[in-house]
User: Which sequence fits this backbone?
């Protein structure tokens, strides 16, 4: 193996593993968009909120109780957000709802920092930082565990959507709000469930990211990486979020490795958006998204 | 009775097309302009640099975004990046090529508008959330380009200082003079904007905002007017960005034009009132004053409780209140502070009579 190819492979693998984590955040967006047609800019802030809440109670309660606390907290938060910021806006243009979630983003970030402080904190899962050597390339152990966790979560979500009554209800609502209501599905309860689910995804994403980069405001910026993921994969598709995340992770890592040195670094920050722009031009609804047909 | 509409007869076309047809509006505006001209010399530098100049700059930026979001219904998360383009264009034109200041301001606007035109072209094919992400991409790409092209920024994390700012023979070295420059520019562009929104262009934008497919069917060319909205918005942002450099900071620093500022300007538009000129000013005023009010309140509360309040707490509370305000206004008063202003006017129209 030539050194360049080895370098590329290493970048590719680490990029793919990071991409899995992007997919995790993007998944939260997809869940809410599918169920309620709301584009939730607050997903990043929710991830941050969950991670910070967890870190703050962890020293006092220990893992199991802390997790329980955060799950209950996120569920409560989902109910509150739905009540306060979304339900009153039902029937208004989607833009208003999206802007409302932008407001929620600021409010949540501010609330989290007012409650638990602005200092970045460490969150350790107790995984050794020693990389694994496999076929000549180095793989980060933490990333591997994270990828495994994401695989389990996605499997659980798929099971939920395919096999449970509530999951079926969510799919029905995603398909057609009115038809779903007419067969007796309580729309609002489904929305709360969708927000709770995305809150749970936010917890998982928050733990994984917090373990990687520490729990600080930077966690909520991960959402900015999830947006190109959605554009590439399609905003209403769970497989799309996964594939999109992998594409973003892989391309940005390769770009940073090969183009970065030529232009002075920082390519990672913008490359996903370049890819997303190309997709917007060529295929605005993403790889797996459903094209929208508009009528007057 | 204070705000009378009756008894105002329009007998000529010129009267009908007047910017302020009502005497009450004319008097009110005149008083406001007089106050803006006469009062600042009485205020200290803190008031000018800390409140009035930022207010004017952000009003201009919010006004620009209001054309785009409030009038044409296109969401943009990249407004601060257009300001950055204007800021750097202004500094480079004025500092490096010795272009006279008024022309440098204009040039800053024009260059930002050109960038805005490019950023706005996707708006024909995509809308809503997709457009928001495209403008977000513009935000990142523009700031990244400015940072990484040494010809523009002088290197990553560099700031460019402006040389002494002169208009004609006058040196703008005091906060007061800088304030007057900002005021004149903002006043001119506000009048231009007021006329623009009631022209063919403004009405086309509103038609597009209300239903773009229907607008297309009645013969409005979507590409032209959507891109035009981006051009005008970016022009205003560009001039505002140049004002940041010439009147406020005295230097161009990319950190000042990040995504948070884009969202903040969007917040001004939402809180102030979408599709309202007055609203842009009210929103900018509110968001500019908010940090000051919060820090004063926290300090007062801190004195009451007996502990010094941390700065981090202030900024967190500021975010919390800002976000809550956006949601609150979207839910309770979608037309923002401008709508409240109109309610007051309606009340004054009848006062002191009940009806």
Assistant:
């Amino acid at each position: 193996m030539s050194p360049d190819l080895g370098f590329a492979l290493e970048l590719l693998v680490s990029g793919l593993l990071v991409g899995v984590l992007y997919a995790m955040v993007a998944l939260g967006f997809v869940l809410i968009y599918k169920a309620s047609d709301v584009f939730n800019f607050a997903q990043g802030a929710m991830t941050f909120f969950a991670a910070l809440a967890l870190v703050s109670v962890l020293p006092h309660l220990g893992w199991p109780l802390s997790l329980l606390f955060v799950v209950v907290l996120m569920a409560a938060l989902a109910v509150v957000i739905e009540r306060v910021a979304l339900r009153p806006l039902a029937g208004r243009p989607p833009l208003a709802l999206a802007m409302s979630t932008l407001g929620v983003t600021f409010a949540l970030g501010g609330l989290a920092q007012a409650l638990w402080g602005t200092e970045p904190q460490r969150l350790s899962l107790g995984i050794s930082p020693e990389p694994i050597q496999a076929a000549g390339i180095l793989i980060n152990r933490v990333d591997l565990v994270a990828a495994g966790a994401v695989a389990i979560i996605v499997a659980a979500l798929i099971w939920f959507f395919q096999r449970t009554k509530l999951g079926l209800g969510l799919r029905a609502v995603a398909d057609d709000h009115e038809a779903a209501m007419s067969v007796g599905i309580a729309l609002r309860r489904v929305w709360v469930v969708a927000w709770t689910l995305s809150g749970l995804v936010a917890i998982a994403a928050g733990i994984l990211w917090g373990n990687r980069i520490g729990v600080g405001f930077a966690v909520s910026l991960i959402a900015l990486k999830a947006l190109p993921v959605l554009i590439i994969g399609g905003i209403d598709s769970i497989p799309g979020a996964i594939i999109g995340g992998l594409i973003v992770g892989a391309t940005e890592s390769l770009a940073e490795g090969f183009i970065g040195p030529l232009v002075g670094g920082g390519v990672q920050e913008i490359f996903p958006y370049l890819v997303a722009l190309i997709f917007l031009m060529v295929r605005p609804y993403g790889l797996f998204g459903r094209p929208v047909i508009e009528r007057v | 009775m204070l705000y009378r509409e009756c008894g105002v007869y329009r007998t000529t076309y010129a009267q009908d097309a007047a910017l302020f047809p009502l005497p009450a509006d004319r008097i009110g505006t005149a008083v406001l302009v007089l106050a803006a001209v006469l009062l600042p010399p009485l205020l200290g530098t803190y008031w000018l640099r800390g409140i009035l100049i930022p207010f004017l700059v952000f009003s201009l930026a919010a006004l620009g975004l209001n054309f785009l979001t409030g009038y044409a219904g296109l969401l943009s998360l990249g407004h601060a990046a257009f300001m950055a383009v204007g800021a750097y264009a202004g500094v480079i034109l004025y500092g490096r090529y010795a272009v006279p200041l008024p022309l440098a301001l204009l040039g800053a606007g024009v260059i930002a508008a050109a960038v805005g035109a490019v950023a706005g072209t996707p708006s024909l094919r995509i809308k809503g959330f997709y457009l928001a992400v495209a403008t977000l991409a513009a935000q990142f790409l523009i700031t990244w380009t400015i940072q990484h092209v040494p010809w523009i920024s002088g290197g990553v994390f560099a700031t460019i200082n402006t040389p002494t700012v002169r208009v004609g023979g006058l040196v703008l070295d005091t906060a007061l003079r800088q304030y007057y420059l900002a005021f004149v520019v903002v006043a001119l562009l506000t009048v231009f904007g007021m006329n623009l929104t009631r022209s063919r262009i403004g009405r086309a934008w509103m038609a597009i905002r209300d239903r773009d497919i229907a607008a297309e069917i009645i013969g409005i060319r979507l590409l032209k007017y959507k891109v035009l909205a981006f051009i005008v918005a970016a022009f205003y942002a560009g001039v505002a960005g140049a004002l940041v450099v010439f009147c406020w900071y005295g230097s161009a620093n990319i950190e000042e034009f990040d995504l948070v500022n884009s969202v903040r300007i969007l917040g001004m538009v939402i809180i102030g009132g979408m599709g309202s000129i007055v609203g842009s000013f009210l929103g900018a005023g509110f968001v500019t004053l908010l940090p000051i009010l919060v820090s004063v309140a926290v300090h007062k509360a801190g004195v009451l409780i007996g502990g010094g309040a941390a700065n981090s707490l202030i900024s967190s509370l500021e975010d919390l209140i800002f976000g809550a305000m956006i949601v609150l206004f979207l839910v309770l008063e979608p037309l923002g502070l401008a709508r409240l202003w109109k309610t007051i006017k309606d009340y004054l129209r009848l006062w002191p009579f009940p009806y």
